[in-house]
Every structure is written in structure tokens, then in C-alpha cells.
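Notebook entry, structure prediction.
Reason for the run: the old model in the group folder had no record of what sequence produced it. Starting over properly, with the input documented here first.
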Amino acid sequence: MKPRPRTPPPDDSSPLDDATWLYSFADLMTQLLIFAVLMITAMGVKPLKTAPDAAAPPPPSPLTALQQEVERMAKQSGLGDALTVDRSANRLTIRMKSAILFGEAQDRLTRDAERVLDELTPILVRTKNNLRVDGHTDDVGINTAAFPSNWELSAARAISVARYLEARGVASARFSVAGFGEFHPMVPNLNASSRALNRRVEIVVLGE
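New structure, fully documented this time:
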């Protein structure tokens, strides 16, 4: 029988034969990872902010709020036929029919006029805007001792409205008054209905 060859002794020169160093390496990597997490936390990484669901609507402008209040008052008081409101960019026009405010060719306020103005006065007192009271007539001429023309009649009617509001607390320094006669009609003076629309007094709330 041939003798069995001997197995060579293990070669201790290969580092893979002793893997204990891998435990130390893994432990080092774990410590480095923990250190990195702590550093990121210490630096304060902020969470992402979520956008708001919807922006809050802006509050209405003073003129818009005033328009809404006047319209609500007119509706609740049953004054829809006597009073209308128009809004433009820098003013609010409160329009009242002369048929409600005055008798024919007169500048003295009727009881119905006082009722309308009594409802309107508290709202105007709370505002700070300047006011212009405009009087308008139709194209039917007038020539009396008191009112030689529609100029005088329209101005006198505007003054009557301004005086009434002033007597009930609206500061007189806020007022200006104008009489336009028949020269600024809303619609052409074609018949009785259109003329009735053109006979009016307007309280113009001026924007700041």
C-alpha cells in the first residue's frame, strides 16, 4: 500500500481565515450611522409644511359693505320701490324717487320721505365717507316765484334732504349739494314713466 499523503497545515497568512475583524468593522459602521443620525437631528431638519386648504376670502371693501347694508335695510323695510343702490369703482349712489320724497313742484319732504331717510340715517352716521346730495328733475319746465327753473328746484330738493340728514346726526362737514336740473337724465324723457325715473335725489357716498 502506498502511504496516504499528509494534509498540509492551514496557511495563517490569509486574513479571511480569521473573520473576527469583521465584527469590529460592523460595530464601527453602526456607530458611524448612529453618529450621522444624531448630527442630522441636532442640525434641525424641518418637516415639510403643507399648503393651506384654501386662502381666506378678503373682507369686503367699505363701499361694498355699505351697499350690502343699505340693500338689506331697504328689503327689510319694504323700501325696494323707493330706494335703489348703484355701485361704481369709487362711489356708491343711493337713489330715491322724487315722487316719494316731494309733492309736485315742491321741495318740502313728505312723510314717506321722512320714513325713508329715518331708515337710512343710522347707516350714514356710522360711515366716515363724504356725501354729495344731487337733485335731478325731468325736462318739464317750471317758472314760479320760488323756482324760476329746474336748476332751483333740483338744488332746493337736494338741500332739503341734506338738512334732514344733518338734523339727525350726519355731520354737516361731510356734505356737498348739487342741483343738476333736467340735464343729467337716467333715461330719455319720452313719456310719464321715463320722466318719473329722472325726477330723483341721489345720495352719493364718495370713496376715500
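Summary: The mean pLDDT is 86.
The old model has been moved to the deprecated folder.
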